[in-house]
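Fold this sequence, please.
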Amino acid sequence: MLLQYGTMVVVGALSRSEGCGVYRSEFKESVFEMCNDGARVDIGVLGSLAVTVGGMAANIQSRRMQTIVALLALESGTVVSYEQLAAELWPAKVPSNPRNALQANVTRIRRLISPLPDLIRTTRGGYVMDVPRECLDSNRFLTLLSTASKYVKIEPAQAILLLERALGLWRGDALSGVRESPRCSSEAAYLEERRIAAWNDLESARLVVGDEWQAVAELRKLVRTYPRQERLVELFMLALYRVGRQSEALDVYHRARRLLVENQGVQPGPALERMYAGILEHNPPDDWFCSAA
């Protein structure tokens, strides 16, 4: 099987073991696009900022320099103007001569990524980072999520492999340490929503293939982390019911309802109410499945 999206290629050999319903897959990702001199660049934003050039980590400790790299990476291939960068770096009050301050910080960044000092180019109006989108871990995550969502119902075992790989790219909260920038803060919120969508799809796929015990273990942690995510609560209830824990599934509903009413002043949505009613009657709804991505 060959999955190709953009310039990233995932090659997979998918087979079904004899006598059982377990899929075996051997995936190989093509080497992501290289920069002109052949040094690979990886930029991580699914956690604190991490930059690796030619296999060597760039030690960018300054919060301001981290923010510049993050902003340019998020807009890779596009010129980010001096004015835009200044507004992001100093949202409260822009200094009297922001261009000089920007130039000084970019010069320091270039020293830290010395194998590729031209990774950040100066243009007439600002700076641009010329890296393929696959060099950014968040773009790889989003591509894997988009591809996996097409497989959740028709080839759930395939979707599980892709979603596990996508979620495995995360090292912590997205763009932690640079969220004072409005652009970075907005992107972090978006990526977190996509992360939750990935978990929704992964646990849905586990339930489709009948891996309820694994789903129970993971959903227990997820519902604790995201107690207001009704879809995760719904899946947790269904997984518990399927392993013979109807009473616990009903308790999960009541805790979620109490949290919604007390903290947000709202009742659970129709889907969660239907799941509760179905489990109460030993007849959970058949149309529980939907892809979140």
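The radius of gyration is 23 Å. The chain is about 50% helix and 15% strand.
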